[in-house]
Amino acid sequence: MTEPHSAGDPTPTVLLDVVDLHAGYGLTEVLRGINLRVAEGEFSVVIGPNGHGKSTLLRAISGLVAPRSGSIRFAGSRIDTMRTETIVGQGLIHIPQGDMLFPDMTVSENLALGAFVKSAQKNRAAKLERVYDIFPRLAERATQRARTLSGGERRMLAIGRGLMGDARMLMIDEPSLGLAPVLVEEVYRQIARIAAEGMTVLLVEEDFSRVRDVADHVTLVENGSVVLSGSVDYVLSHPAIAATYLGIDT
Asked: Which residues form the ABC transporter domain (predicted)?
């Protein structure tokens, strides 16, 4: 089920448009006809149980998993046949689970690598200044090797590296994974700030309580299919679904 668009509301500009996407690994199909739209400037969240296709969805969008059928458009262009580095060059940046940092490089070196595509090398100093403004702790640890950072600092570094890539949209996979609650709150405050400053965000999360107050749009995924998609209020207006998938008694 998808929330109907009100005739009185202006039609949003769609930045990411995923249509009937099927994808998987080997003989296993993980995504079974996923439809997902993310409007420009929107904070969109994909919620669902572990192992039901949320991470595979991001990997397919970013070109790490080849779609079996369906289409993916970003800023109006088909990207489902593009190489990952070409997709990054379009401004679609994927921040995966586990951060994927270069542990023996310093914080500043990891950030510099975020601007590896030609388009991102312009104004690199200004981008770095912005990252340090959002994550002051990274500025304090600029010369430290990534492997010496705490879990929360590594998560900040991964997000900061994504911002260095001249991003039009960030896809962030479970930023709360493995972090202590106080660090989760800090990381989410910073993500909310990035979104409030105009960045389009597609975020995967398992715990709805962490995104309830910041999400513009929520998509519930189970067994590789969309169960429900719409605003937070629309999702919560379905008591049975909210109780089953979000653990909320409405």
From this structure: 16-248
Asked if residue 117 lies in contact with residue 85, where contact means CB atoms within 8 angstroms, the answer is yes
Domain count, the chain: 1
d(CA 166, CA 175): 20
Query: pTM for the whole thing?
Result: 0.90
Q: Is residue 188 part of a domain?
A: yes
Task: Give the C-alpha separation, 57 to 241, whole Å.
Answer: 21
Per residue in 120-178, pLDDT tens? 677 788 899 999 999 999 999 999 999 999 999 999 999 999 999 888 999 999 998 88
Tokens encoding 159 = 């997000």
From CA 3, how far away is CA 231, in angstroms rounded? Answer: 7
Percentage helix, strand, coil, to 5, in the chain?
Answer: 35, 25, 40
Structural domain harbouring 231: 14-246
Which one, of 97, 130, 90, 92, lies nearest residue 111 by Cα? 130
In a domain, 134, yes or no: yes
